[in-house]
Design goal:
heterodimer; A: about 45% helix; globular; B: about 450 residues; Rossmann fold; four-stranded parallel β-sheet; about 45% helix; Nase_comp1_CS (chain B); ChlB/BchB/BchZ (chain B); nitrogenase activity (chain B); Nase/OxRdtase_comp1 (chain B); nitrogen fixation (chain B)
Chain lengths: ~525, ~450
């Protein structure tokens, strides 16, 4: 099943001229005969189009900073921004050796609850007072303050308030200028969060024990439904030492030590590639794009990781764990594959999952025929080779770029990080694409649709025209898709299930997808008396 | 859970920790969804709109459509007029609503965008309408936002025709309640034989069936024409002071329709008040069915009082729900020990305090603009037998091992609740059942084997 130009025309015909001109550039019908198909992305949202996008605050506080469990995160703004980000993203966390239960602040919603007087006279004093009270009450290891829309407009100086509070209390107070109107989507917030963590936290911890082997970080993994824990289970069994997961179930203490790893794994490219790149510049740490979503994808990632260390024992152990896990889960997966085989799906998620889940769905015999992102950039669609050609437009040019240089003490060449010779490293680079991401497009087939910032109108039209068997999207799309008679699974929150990553994740996902398709109520949609009159 | 909470007395004066309110625009969005073929529009940056749609969707498990002006940094500095005009044009061309109901956010309010002027300068197709309400997030709460949007429906739409005789009909402003409650209030009013216009009305919008024939604008919602005609009604009932009084007063001022403020009809007394008001103002005959329903509630209260009488309860939520709920738990013989709303208004403390004192209870705390941090601290000091409120109390419920009855907005972790009323006599039975069951299940769980009873 694929989309014809005619169906596309039908979808776009309602648009006013300016909208049509704009939206056409954000939609690609994949044609593998063409050398490079360019898609427009990361541009401003069309007003009134019913986008699914959120804001920079959501990208910064909601996604990257919020999961850090041993910090108190103060939202400086009216109550809504803090309220809606309270417990709604399922980045799981638990107490562990580094973080005792009384240092866990994940279930708190802390807001300066700005009132009209704070807008008129400024909110700095209230913010400072709240920091004092919070430190006194909770004794966190560090505090974050996140800005919301009005903060930038009224000119509250978060940096100054944070600095003064830091001096008063002797703990780090990080300020994030992630006002909702910055950039064009959540993406700006990721960048703002990355910059601050890189500049002020990463690398401030002690040096690692030089005897530690295979030390890795997982960057851009937020432990939704326990995904990160499942990855850590597999990697631990193989023999890796997971130094830090950024930022699922992570503590501030661990982020300080982020520079200790030999290799950075990048799961979500969009949200964390800045830190991956900056760590490469500053510390020389190489990074590898991995994908732990799907049985085949996980296997590929594990094998590439093993090659990166080039250690026979590690390679052997990798194959052993792969064989063990596959023997355990494949019979069950096979059962579900019989239900899912040949079915089609749409995947419209934030900035990375639409691509990741293609692999897991293929494990189940399903094909993603329409795939898109809310806020990814062209490199996530087309691959990082397009980065030099990207133009930063007026809406995003105010997101600061950090320009780092190699750390005089801590920088080491990539091959030194990986404990191999330069020659061996050059060989490795031919086999494994280090510091690179090829994007979603190469994994798509002719006639399939790649769509950026898909809106309500377009998704509804495509569901009606292409009648997929399943739609993977967010909570705002789920219920109308189901009202159309098509099962929909939430790909952000996993419909409160999970993990979906790794081997146990593949099992959970297969079961959930099969259940969504086969739930008996789908056969009861038409009332019996309505059938008789037809 | 919540091991981080401080021990003993602490100072918490600035801001909120675990609030019992959210911001204005979500209330305005909910109100606007109660207009037939209306698309709510959020004039701000798009994150607000995404969050508000998300939260309403999670509470109702139904589609929630709304558009946004999608401010960028440029618009935030120089004003959002161009964004709103573009949005209005795009929305009418692509989504074809009959009416766009615009609300604002802290962003456009801080900038000071002049909405009436922008709307006047916008392209609005013949026969279509754009209304607006200013809903600054830094004032009041989501309830204030609901109130502001309902008031805007009156100021933009309600009209008094030339005719001298008013229609023998009541306007009902139901307050920020679930569609099931609106449905129940309409059922009671119909059974009294009184014609009505309810606005806003989210029945058949946020409790719609699955038919595989989705329509972006479901059957429900008050039509623009009906809202216009409210100016010709004989009477308005404003249910819930915080949600509905402002619109009721505006309708009185604009069209001369007298307004009777009542509580949201939760509990026996508040339901009695609604029925008595309709009976007196419209010479209505109360049908036997309602008398029977009322009698069933009294019967059940007598039958079950030993399940809950004398139990201490903490109630938190929106003022128009909490006030009649406190009244009902007092009717049940329970002790409202702690009562909180996040919405500002001293009247809340006075009204609730007076009810509790009238019942002869002296040891209690009532707080407007409180938060769940406060409540948790009080509970640690002296615990209660039951919590009644929205989903967010579940953390306290688990930490302190107190049963929670989910009532109010938002309820994110249970289904079916928006389809079942807590209003009217039917709602009384449901509340009694939920409260009794919660306490009895706890008794079954906690008691010794020899005290485990078959019949309770």
């Amino acid at each position: 099943m694929s989309m014809s130009e005619e169906m596309m025309g039908d979808m776009l015909e309602k648009y006013p001229e300016k909208v049509l001109k704009n939206r056409k550039k954000h939609i690609t019908i994949v044609d593998t005969n063409q050398a490079c198909q360019q898609i427009e992305a990361n541009t401003r949202t069309i007003p009134g189009i019913i986008t699914q996008r959120g804001c920079a605050y959501a990208g910064c506080k909601g996604v990257v900073v919020g999961p850090i469990k041993d910090m108190v995160h103060i939202v400086h703004g009216p109550i809504g921004c803090a309220f809606y980000a309270w417990g709604t993203r399922r980045n799981k966390a638990r107490a562990d050796d580094n973080t005792p239960p009384e240092k866990m602040f994940s279930t708190l919603c802390v807001s300066t609850d700005m009132q009209e007087s704070d807008i008129v006279f400024g909110g700095e004093k209230k913010l400072a007072k709240m920091i004092d009270e919070v430190v006194e009450m909770f004794h966190p290891r560090a505090v974050s303050i996140c800005a919301t829309c009005p903060v930038g407009l009224i000119g509250d100086d978060l940096g100054a308030v944070a600095k003064a509070a830091q001096e008063r209390h002797g703990i780090q107070v990080l300020s994030f200028n992630c006002e909702g109107y910055k950039g064009v989507s959540q993406s700006a917030g990721h960048h703002i969060a990355n910059n601050n963590l890189m500049e002020n936290v990463i690398g401030t911890g002690p040096e690692r024990d030089p005897n530690d082997k295979y030390v890795i970080n997982i960057l851009g993994e937020y432990n939704i439904g326990g995904d990160g824990w499942e990855m850590e289970r597999i990697l631990g069994d193989i023999g890796y030492k997971v130094n830090c997961v950024l930022t699922g179930d992570t503590s501030y203490l661990e982020i300080k030590n982020l520079h200790q790893a030999h290799l950075n794994l990048v799961q979500c490219h969009r949200s964390i590639n800045y830190i991956a790149e900056m760590m490469e510049t500053k510390y020389g740490t190489p990074w590898l794009k991995v994908n732990f979503i799907g049985v085949e994808a996980t296997k590929k990632s594990l094998r590439e990781m093993a090659l990166c260390f080039g250690d026979e024992e590690l390679i052997r152990k990798t194959e052993e764990v792969i064989a063990r896990e596959e023997a355990r889960i494949m019979p069950v997966i096979e059962h579900y594959r019989k239900i899912c085989q040949g079915k089609t799906a749409f995947a419209f998620v934030g900035g990375s999952r639409s691509h990741h889940y293609m692999h897991l769905l293929r494990d189940l015999g399903m094909e993603v025929v329409v795939a898109g992102y809310e806020f990814a950039h062209r490199d996530d669609y087309e691959g990082r080779q397009v980065i030099p050609t990207l133009k930063i437009d007026a809406d995003s040019k105010n997101i600061p770029e950090l320009h780092l240089s190699p750390d005089p003490e801590k920088f080491k060449d990539a091959h030194v990080h990986l404990n191999m010779s330069k020659e061996k490293f050059d060989e490795l680079n031919k086999k494994v694409p280090l510091n690179y991401y090829e994007g979603m497009q190469p994994d798509m087939k002719d006639g399939e649709i790649m769509i950026d910032d898909c809106n309500h109108h377009e998704l509804e039209k495509m569901v009606r025209a292409l009648k997929p068997d399943l739609v993977f999207a967010g909570v705002r799309d789920k219920y109308y898709v189901q009202k159309l008679g098509v099962p929909a699974k939430q790909m952000h929150s996993y419909d409160y299930s999970g993990p979906y990553a790794g081997y146990n994740g593949a099992l959970n996902f297969a079961r959930d997808v099969a259940n969504a398709i086969t739930t008996p109520a789908w056969k009861l949609v038409t009332a019996p008396w309505e059938k008789q009159t037809q | 859970m919540l091991e981080c909470m401080p021990e003993g007395e602490v100072v918490h004066t600035a801001g909120k920790i675990n609030p019992v309110k959210t911001c204005q625009p979500i209330g305005a969005m909910y109100a606007a969804l109660g207009i037939h073929r209306c698309l709510p529009h959020s004039h701000g940056s798009q994150g607000c709109c995404a969050y508000h749609r998300m939260h309403l969707t999670r509470h109702f498990r139904d589609p929630v459509l709304a558009s946004t002006s999608s401010f960028t940094e440029g618009a935030s500095v120089f004003g959002g007029a161009a964004n709103l005009k573009t949005a209005i044009k795009n929305v009418f061309e692509i989504y074809k609503p009959d009416i766009i109901a615009v609300h604002t956010t802290c962003l456009s309010e801080t900038i000071g965008d002049d909405l009436p002027t922008i709307i006047k300068q916008s392209e609005v197709p013949e026969g279509k309408v754009v209304i607006h309400a200013n809903t600054p997030s830094y004032q009041g709460s989501h309830i204030t936002g609901f109130s502001n949007m309902v008031k805007a429906m009156v100021t933009y739409l309600a009209a008094r025709d030339e005719e001298t005789i008013r229609k023998k009909r009541v306007n009902i402003i139901p307050g920020f309640v679930n569609p099931s409650d609106m449905r129940e209030i309409k059922r009671i009013t119909s059974s009294l034989g009184v014609d009505m216009i309810m606005f806003p009305d989210t029945t058949n919008v946020l409790d719609s069936p699955l038919t595989a024939k989705y329509d972006m604008y479901p059957e429900g919602g008050t039509t623009v024409e009906e809202i216009r005609d409210t100016g010709n009604s004989r009477l308005t009932l404003a249910l819930g002071a915080w949600s509905s009084n402002a619109a009721g007063a505006a309708l009185m001022e604009k069209c001369g329709v007298p307004c009777v403020p009542l509580k949201v009809p939760i509990g026996l007394k508040a339901t009695d008040d609604l029925i008595m008001t309709l009976k007196e103002k419209f010479d209505a005959v109360v049908p036997d069915d309602l008398t029977l329903e009322r009698g069933q509630v009294v019967d059940t209260l007598i039958d079950t009082h030993f399940h809950y009488q004398g139990k201490k309860v903490a109630i938190y939520g929106d003022p128009d729900i909490v006030v009649p709920l406190v009244e009902f738990v007092l009717t049940m013989g329970m002790i409202p020990k702690y009562v909180i709303t996040g919405t500002p208004g001293k009247a809340f403390e006075e009204q609730v305090g007076a009810m509790i004192e009238e019942a002869g209870i002296e040891d209690y705390i009532v707080k407007a603009e409180g938060d769940l941090f406060d409540l948790h601290q009080w509970i640690k000091e002296e615990s209660v037998d039951l919590l009644i409120g929205n989903t967010y109390g579940k953390y306290i419920a688990r930490t302190e091992d107190i049963p929670l009855v989910r009532v109010g907005f938002p309820i994110l972790d249970r289904a079916v609740h928006p389809l079942m009323p807590i209003t009217g006599y039917k709602g009384c039975l449901r509340l009694i059942e939920m409260i009794s069951n919660a306490l009895l299940e706890r008794r079954d769980r906690d008691c010794l084997d020899e005290d485990y009873e078959l019949v309770l």
